[in-house]
Amino acid sequence: MDVAVIILSLVLLIYFAYRGYSVIFFAPIFAILAASSQGLPIMPTYTELFMAKAAVYVKNFFPIFLLGAIFGKIMEETGMAKSIARAIIGSLGPKYVALSTALSAAVLTYGGVSMFVVVFAVYPLAAALFREAKIPKRLIPASIVLGAFTFTMDSLPGSPQIQNVIPSNFLGTSIYSGPYLGLFVSACMVLCGVSWLTYRTRKLQGEGYGNYTLNEEPVSDTPLPAWQISVLPLLVVLVVNYIGSNVWSWNPDLLAPIAAMKLPLTASSLKSVIGTWSLIIAVACGIATACAIGWRGMSHGGFKGAVSLGAGGALLAIMTVASEVGYGNVVAALPGFKTIAASMLALHLGDNPLLSMAVTINVICGITGSASGGVSIALDLFSKHWLEWAAAAHMSPEVLHRFAAIASGGFDTGPHNGAIITLLAVCGLTHRESYPDIFAMTLFKVLMVVIALAFVSVFGFA
User: In Å, what is the CA distance from 412 to each residue of 11, 149, 373, 441?
Assistant: First the structure.
């Protein structure tokens, strides 16, 4: 019965998100509904559990959301994001428009541009070319998902996206952890995703673009900066991030003055925050580079407008995810979930923790509808157990990091996922029209967990 209540709560959250209602408002309502049915008091559950866990998430990751959104907005307003996307899409031509859309999104995402901003930058160009090539518009969201929400989000080593940063906070690792595993899984994901989009394009040939009017704006003829110049801010982010994570020697006493104050939520060790600090500095350098290169081409209020719009977007994005994190933590505190958790921890199949980790992270990401929210909850609950198990199996934390990141991008893309809702809204499409192909990408991403397990078993990078 306890498990059934959790499932009912999740179904209600998915339904209301599917209908377009705010997750920020309804996540606590359905969390409290589940909690009160299992004996937890309503107000303490809301203020001391839901809000406390949401606040921890905001504390840890808001700087990355904020700077990433501002960086993306500046790249958008200066035209540099569109310049990169146009160069890629134009070079491959209409025949490969789905592939070029995915590749454009991938380059921007791996370069540090917020996934939400990538959608706005790539969609207008993709829509124009899909219409010209007479390919159904309903394939655009899946193309963007492949490029922005899969391998560049969590599999490629060095990805500056939050899903790749979170494991470093719990495991004391680097965002470059598990490079061979990450590269192999990324190649497999690209192969599966492109094969599916090619198959769907051929199957739907003759259907045409469709009679759409919502968000159908012509591509602007405004001159854009050269793509060779436009990629420089992305390269700056990647290079500075690598130096901060792997080359720079951080002073081990940096945290000491703050730790002495005994403030709440202070990091327990320098190792757990180096990844976050490196990325903050890297994105800040990317912002400075983008401004220096493209300030003349800024529109909508220049730098001031980009900061304001980016900050507003970051606030909405992190509060959506934080609400999902709060919801997931309330569910994790319930007796019904403890039954589920016990069964997860009992998954001692094989001699390492990877299978247990894969199932656990996918379940929690599915519950929260968020890769970053789900993996942070899972690692908060089980990382010590997994680290001890990995040590006993002579497996390095770096493999755990890459595997946790890969697993986070599975069932997170449910209908209630905030990024999916935003993507469909920007494209002017509905779940009914485009979600089946998005779900195909989700299934491929879950398959990547199996491929990662096989890779570790065969090559033994542990």
Answer: 14, 10, 9, 11
